[in-house]
Amino acid sequence: METGDEPFLVLEEAGLRIIPLPKAWIEEYLEGDPLYRRLGLPERGRLLSDEVIATFRTKILPLMEAFPEDERYLTVWIVIDLEKQAIVSAFVFKGAPDSDKSIEIGYETFEHYRNQGYMSRTIGIVSGMLDTWPEVDYLYADTEPGNHASIKVLQSNGFSYQGMKDGFLHWRLDVWE
């Protein structure tokens, strides 16, 4: 991913726009309204908790600075509902592919938009995108055992249960199938 001021990719499908944020846009995302203004969306205030903001500032941004060639695997990808003109969810890849050509995804649908199918559609779009990334064969995700909505998202997108890992349900999607 280029480290310039524009996203390297914008996906539009199923009423959603998915944008990997350039490093230069991350501070705006953390604040909320500046990113909404940049994107021409109605302002809605800050989306993220203080804990998430601290994680971005202490872990994610330094990693993006240290490994600019891996920015697409380190940045946050936002999901916009085109009809509602709102950022409804976001996801991150948890680092560049490992030696097994695997990456892990972490995701969240923001509170007012949960249980409306956003993440199911998003994961479907993302898995299709990963078909074009030859360095990725497997996409992993972990869920809490009681998070039935997340389990449903993964099952409906073809992930297979791999067992427990560090207290979480561990799932895998074979990208090329």
- What is the strand tally? 8
Helix-strand category: alpha+beta
Radius of gyration: 16 Å
**Biggest sheet overview:** 8 strands, mixed
DSSP helix fraction:
25-40%
- State the shape: globular
SSE series: EEHHHHEEEHEHEE
Strand order of the largest sheet: 1-2-3-4-5-6-8-7
- Which spans of ≥5 residues are poorly predicted at pLDDT below 50? none
Q: What is the distance, rounded to the nearest whole angstrom, between the alpha carbons of the first and last residues? A: 26 Å
Strand percentage lies at 25-35%
- The count of helical stretches stands at 6
Average pLDDT metric: 92
What does this protein look like?
This protein is α+β, with helices and mostly antiparallel strands and about 180 residues long. It contains six helices and eight strands, in the order ββααααβββαβαββ. The protein has helices at about 25-30, 35-40, 50-65, 70-75, 120-130, 150-155; strands at about 10-15, 15-20, 75-80, 85-95, 100-110, 140-145, 160-165, 170-175. α1 packs across α2.
